[in-house]
Amino acid sequence: MLHAETSNDLMRQIIRTKKAFILRHIMVWAIFITYELSLIELTVGLNASLVHYAFFYLLNIGLFYFNAHVILDFAFFQTSKSILVAAIFIAIEIVFYLLIKLQCENFWNGESWLSLSFTLSHGKLWLSNIFREIFFIGFSTAYWSMLYMIRFKERNHAIEKEQLLQKSQTLELENKYITAENAYLQNQISPHLLFNSLSFIYNAIHQVSPKAGNCVMLLADIMRYSLINSEDNRTVPLLDEVAQIEKLIELSGLRHEHKIFISFQKKGRLKGIHILPLILITLVENMIKHGGVGDVTKPGKILLDSQENFLTFKTINEKRTSTLYTRTGIGLKNIEKRLANFYPGKYTLEIKDETEDFIVSISINL
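RE: above sequence
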């Protein structure tokens, strides 16, 4: 009976997780489509029926998931020459999708189904459709890369944690468990697949959209920085952490059309100082994700003060009334665990949840 109840609970948990996953995807697509249609309406005006737009958006969404869960799954998990196979199949995918798209356009315009006559206007239509395909394929590849990187990381962490828990009776293995836990909190599994995919995305889209290409390269730099510093006993120059914070701010600005406002003030001696990596940048990421930093009259503030062997880092942001992200506090808890493991008795972490502002302050005796 107990086993059956446990199985039922597990099944219900899986169903809830799948429903939440599907709901998040629906919300993201709804926001994306609403944004695009609103932009079209405000600039050139909608020149077709909503049914017309709905059909072609469904076609593009189908391309997004087909590329991620059919082509990339097959190329990277069923073949030995993953990059080459993926490139070939994506090229074929682009051709077939273009033909389907053009035939559908002919249907909507009342033309012959097999008409592929080429004029200057047709050439512009072909070119715009190819650019649209590359756009959805690029972001589909990014989605696939992040999805499987997270799954791979969680699976490996679960296996490692299980092995260490079985032998945690000795002090040596207990220390290994702390090291493994910190490595997990720091998200430091080396997903070479991610960088291969990001390089492919950059090569595919940087000539079409320099802005999107710049975003990909900034993301790759930040991810590479986090992966290089994978050892728990390794510190990094403070200047490196500061440089990554500035890249994160720049990347967030590009994502939000430069509608985020953050002031980053640095005082004291930064050169020659070493700290535990990814502590400061995680606080900034948390501020951008959950805080209100979209008001130019009240920007988010980052204050860094390094005096001799004492480091103070503070983020101040206006509280956001609504957000797409659920506040779990996991990020701040992970930071506190890492600080406690590496700077025992030599740090303070203060969190102030005030009426209008949210303030996080860290002080470390280096």
